[in-house]
Amino acid sequence: MSRFNFWELAKNALSAHENWGRQWRAPEPKAEYDVVIIGAGGHGLATAYYLAKEHGVTNVAVLEKGWLGGGNTGRNTTIVRSNYLWEESEGLYDHAMDLWQDLSQELNYNIMYSARGVMMLAHTIHDIQVFKRHVYANRLAGVQNEWLTAEEAKEYCPPLNISKNMRYPVLGAALQRKAGVARHDAVAWGYARGADKYGVDIIQNCAVTGIRRGADGAVEGVETSRGLIRAKRVGVVAAGHTTTVMDMAGVRMPLESYPLQALVSEPVKPCFPCVVMSNTIHAYMSQSDKGELVIGAGTDQYISYSQTGGLQIPAHTIEAICELFPMFRRMRMLRNWGGTVDVTPDRSPIIGKTPVPGLFVNCGWGTGGFKATPGSGHVFAHTLARGEPHPINAPFTLDRFRTGRLIDEAAAAAVAH
Amino acid sequence: MLLITCPYCGVERPEIEFRYAGEAHIARPAEPSKLTDEEWAEYLYMRTNPKGLLAERWRHAHGCGRFFNAIRDTVSDRFVTIYKMGEAKPDLERLVVEAAQ
Ligand SMILES: Cc1cc2nc3c(=O)[nH]c(=O)nc-3n(C[C@H](O)[C@H](O)[C@H](O)COP(=O)(O)OP(=O)(O)OC[C@H]3O[C@@H](n4cnc5c(N)ncnc54)[C@H](O)[C@@H]3O)c2cc1C
Ligand SMILES: [Zn+2]
């Protein structure tokens, strides 16, 4: 497979871009692999890429029941930031933030990372206290984050309404300048192409239906819609479906799967410079490079695998958007969809070993795991290759729900994204 | 939006009148001080989260204010049955068989 560069682009331009080759293979599954990864979302594909590239483990299959990137990876609103509260999370999300910076070069694939800044609005005294606490905690840990007054927030994002007459006036904001957005599909495709180049088999339309365990309890392989595939190490990276996959191995999980919805408007010229989020009134927004406003809502209240939710949820979000940005009151919305997000009690992910030897899990990213994709894959690859966690993911065990060492990010992750 | 029938009021009302209250039939331990860490983790955090029939609690927050239980299919979001607090949990396997007929 060729590298993308100026000459390739020029050459293919001459044939009207009709002769670009396939970017990854569609292999038949082999009988056995060293590592099998369940789920070809961004996290599973990034894991495979770093397994091959950094640990030399290339006899790897990524099994996907649908199409790669068709889960939450391809449904999310692409916000990337690292201003979480606790040191454990700062370590994890800032590790990803470092990897985002030159990911396009690393993968030789334009993932369109745009560090346009993410601003989180405060509307109440409580918001101000919580966000300032985040700002101070982040700065102590060397994570970028700063406090803005309402006027400074408006200067950073001119469409913002800071009138005192709003139902929930803007009282200030926390801003992370190097945060931003990236193209979600490109992240999945870039990692898929990179992993495939090292010989990883990405097998789509292959649902895992069982986990085979030996007499000693250890994993021996997985049963799939395309037959038995043996592997002594299996990584479950199945987001909203993690409970159903872990059930196959008899492991109970502290997860609940909720619908999370988003919507986009008709495309318009560039008019919205950054990402703005409001946890208190449940809305956040950015503008894609195609010109659509990308708007995210909160989760629906009930457990569901329907990948759809109630219309009152986006309606509520749109009301907040219209109040915050009056200039968008006449915008028309084009599409609305949902994903199934796996939420943990402390709103932090689980990345590591399970009680079953050889079975590892990377899940619980809930409403906000896209931002962590490179870092998550990087540390999970380490965990799968060595059988032990990387220091960065060591605190994110499944066992923390027994020991009580929770990593409570409810405030940092309060609404989606 | 879901339409939910409150078993106390006996009327079908829109979801926004109700508050979800998670998985049903998780009993508070009778003797909390005797629990091991594993048992606490199971009680506090581990959830069935099924893809299929789920026994769950709802509260008619903007109506009578009372809690009740329901069996709902988490794929179609359809309510299979709704019952009052204190009534026994229906046999989920039988409901699956009945639904298939
Ligand atoms: C509407 C919405 C907005 C969001 N906005 C943001 C945001 O702005 N910023 C942010 O950081 N995060 C956001 N998120 C969260 C983010 O999308 C997820 O945390 C992240 O994409 C999870 O990636 P993943 O690779 O773990 O999961 P997924 O991309 O869901 O991949 C899991 C894959 O596993 C496959 N699978 C499941 N079961 C099986 C099986 N039995 N056999 C084989 N394959 C299986 C699925 O088909 C799926 O492709 C949002 C999510 C949603 C739904
Ligand atoms: Zn009632």
Automatic annotation (TrEMBL), chain A:
Key word Oxidoreductase present: yes
SUPFAM superfamilies in alphabetical order: FAD/NAD(P)-binding domain
GO molecular function annotation: nucleotide binding; sarcosine oxidase activity
Top-level taxon of origin: Bacteria
Subcellular location(s) per record: Cytoplasm
EC number, UniProt record: 1.5.3.24
Main localisation: cytoplasm
Enzymatic reactions: sarcosine + (6S)-5,6,7,8-tetrahydrofolate + O2 = (6R)-5,10-methylene-5,6,7,8-tetrahydrofolate + glycine + H2O2; sarcosine + O2 + H2O = formaldehyde + glycine + H2O2
One GO cellular component term: cytoplasm
InterPro entries, per the entry: FAD-dep_OxRdtase (IPR006076), FAD/NAD-bd_sf (IPR036188), Rhodanese-like_dom (IPR001763), SoxB (IPR006278)
One annotated GO biological process: tetrahydrofolate metabolic process
Alphabetical list of Gene3D superfamilies matching this protein: D-Amino Acid Oxidase, subunit A, domain 2, FAD/NAD(P)-binding domain
Cofactor(s) in the UniProt record: FMN; FAD
Rhodanese domain residues: 35-79
Keywords linked to the UniProt accession: Cytoplasm, FAD, Flavoprotein, FMN, Nucleotide-binding, Oxidoreductase
Family: Belongs to the SoxB family.
Name this polypeptide is given: Sarcosine oxidase subunit beta
Source organism (scientific name): Stappia sediminis
From TrEMBL, chain B:
Protein name: Sarcosine oxidase subunit delta family protein
Any single Pfam family the record assigns to this protein: SoxD
Gene3D superfamilies: Folate-binding superfamily
Gene Ontology terms describing biological process: tetrahydrofolate metabolic process
Lineage: Bacteria, Pseudomonadati, Pseudomonadota, Alphaproteobacteria, Hyphomicrobiales
GO molecular function, one term: sarcosine oxidase activity
Annotated transmembrane regions: none
